[in-house]
Amino acid sequence: MTDEQYMQQALNEAQKAFDAGEVPVGAIIVMNDKVIARAHNQVELLNDSTAHAEILALTTAFNFLGSKYLPKATLYVTLEPCLMCCGALYWSKMGRIVYGANDEKNGYKKTTGDKSPFHPKTEVLNGILKEDCAGLMKDFFKARR
Question: Is the CB of residue 82 less than 8 Å from the CB of residue 118?
Fold first, then answer.
């Protein structure tokens, strides 16, 4: 499958968050061409400010593999990760991170600029299905204003 096809699966997760009244961020983790984890934001449902899609997907992947490191895995997430999620991704030694839309307000680039907060061996790719990912966020916040 292509990055776009995997990102579409992350968008499906984001839609679940949207439908549940959560900020619509979705994530999947892929290893050896197999989805090993999927998650979406559940901050409101769990009353937990750390229940971001990335964190929930990481926990699922760690449990699935019985490992605390994911150097051969790829995270697909619809929105640029925040600093909290970057810390978790750093410690997971995630092999590759692919995200859709930029997050000027809460994304890691707001603080780190061009410096990567991820593990030195982590490859980062952004802008995959960017318009679709950003559109879902815009629709969510437009409906609440």
Answer: no
**4 catalytic, yes or no?**
no
Tell me the three state secondary structure of residue 53.
Answer: helix
pLDDT digits 0-9 by tens, 79-124: 999 999 999 999 999 999 999 999 999 999 999 998 999 999 999 9
Contacts of 30 (CB under 8 A, 6+ apart): 6, 36, 73, 74, 76
Counting every residue written for the chain, the total comes to 145
CA–CA dist 80, 99 (Å, integer): 6
CA distance 145 to 140: 9
Identified catalytic residue from 13, 22, 54, 80? 54
